[in-house]
Amino acid sequence: MTATLLRTAADLHARARTGRRAVVMTMGALHEGHATLIRTARKIAGPEGEVVVTVFVNPLQFGAGEDLDRYPRTLDADVELAGRSGADAVFAPSVDEVYPGGEPQVRISAGPMGERLEGAARPGHFDGMLTVVAKLLHLTRPDVALYGHKDAQQLALIRRMARDLNFGVEIVGVPTVREEDGLALSSRNRYLSPAERRTALALSQALFAGRDRHAAQEALRARAREVPATRARAEALSAIGESRAAADAHAVATTAGGPAAVRAAARLVLDEAARLDPPLRLDYLALVDPSDFTEIGDDFTGEAVLAVAARVGATRLIDNIPLTFGPFGDAS
């Protein structure tokens, strides 16, 4: 399948529309993660619909000293990958097309959620991101727009903007795509030297360590609940030769774990990576409520996001995974 390259909104609006239009927004330098988004969009749009991929390196979301000038621009390869993945068109407007007359005086504010984590590390980033997303939603007029879970805070803010400002577009999140060794796919991975890439694996390894600690904790809690915490428990466990193991399970399940243990397991990996050559320089490790990206407490129940951001050499990378915390009641 060959994707048509479009440079202006007028050209895009001139295309006949019969079914649903699904849009995948990118800054180019497409990789398999983007391809997964495009293939998902193709399924949602169906054979009668249309998939449009936007390629636009948005200057508003780059702060002073960030990599706007060196951000990879590979439009020819992007058009080829987009078409191969199922896109009908690639909309690659110029800065003047998106921002006629220069930088916009009126912008979208990301609010308090936009000042946390990534927003604190990159002031103004989310205001610029939401402003261009709003512009591109108006310019492309989709029925559905797809974004990756790797940028979890971005996805949460886009969903909030669409809901709060009545955009009338369905926002779909698509799971993070990883390389075989666990590294989350990112256009910035190409900046990494072989040694830096080895260090960068600590981001995903830290998240997996937190996830595995949580899974082990939940398994121990489930095991501890199998027999009531009474004399009958001890007798029953002794009868099957598991008294020590089950006692250990019960002790761990009821006294250690939850969000604090998840954070500790992840931080241990990151602390070790800080001693590598080259070292990993941590920006943040956070375990947050995805509704507002505030840190969760030890008694939290429900969906959460374990997120990390760090620098390796001159390259800044982010990653996250979802976790679910059940009720912490008595494990008896």
From TrEMBL:
This is Pantoate--beta-alanine ligase. The lineage of its organism: Bacteria, Bacillati, Actinomycetota, Actinomycetes, Kitasatosporales. It is an enzyme of class 6 (ligase). Keywords: Ligase. Its EC number is 6.3.2.1.
